[in-house]
Model the fold of this input.
Amino acid sequence: MEVKRKGSLLSFRPDIKVLDATLRDGGLCNNFEFTDDFARALYRMNVAAGVDYMEMGYKASKAMFDPSKFGKYKFCDEEDIRKIVGDNDTDMKLAVMADVGRTDFKKDIGPKKDSAVDMVRVACYINEIPRAIEMIEYCAAMGYETCANVMAVSKAKDEEIADALDMLGQSPVDVIYLVDSYGSLYPEQVAKLTLIYLEAGEKYKKAIGVHAHNNQQLAFGNTIEAASWGASYLDMTVNGIGRGAGNCSSELLLGFLKNPKFRLEPVLQFIADYMLPLRKAGVVWGYDIPYLLTGRLNMHPSSAIAFIREKREDYAAFNGELLEKD
Done:
């Protein structure tokens, strides 16, 4: 059977949903210490730009993470979210992320009817799928939409991915995400994986999403590659802010998508008003040589983060150190 792309670069795809992960993935750059003014302006920007989902942050365990060392978007208490969005009387839905093993989900995630949050995104590594499904079943029973973000699939074997997709397919999850955690994948690999995910999605009636990192300056390219084959949930962050090399930039993605409901101007204004001052204040993110080197070797960016923190510039020596580890 010939496999075809879903439309062309000029196609309007009504099935596509965009999710802003600025507070969550971007929070990894500044310990989630965003001001209420920043969060409120971001919320208004996303509503004005026609964004479908805004991720407010993590639902992390306060027993594991000291609240005095992180901003409120590490924990997303209901009162903190409502301080920003009120009752969220808009068409945009709100999401939070819950990491397997890092959240007291039965304690901290209550019924949807009592929350402004619409979706819980469960993040796990491939060996944690059974625990992720337990969380997904709980959150679905509480009334939430659910996603499974399976991290670091670039390290997984094909049969592991197939097993994971079958297990998730039989769960109540709504969306299964292809996640390029290390920014190591190339568009050809993304296309192959997207088709594998889509086959499972069609079998089990699940939507497929993509979350890309920019280590090799391919976050945007990989996102639209996945979308071109049929992925419909697309993650982005304003100005690409996110852990390490960052994510697919909102301004690139919204400028590319052909749905007339998406508007670029609010994003550009927000960048000028809030993202540029954030950079000037010393928050660091984006493509850099150390992230390129870990990305091309399919390695976690922790070594690159440490390299940059130490203000090193001996790139060739760092590359040699990584090759020895590989």
About this structure: The longest strand covers residues 93-99. The mean pLDDT is 96. The chain has two domains: 17-280, 289-325.
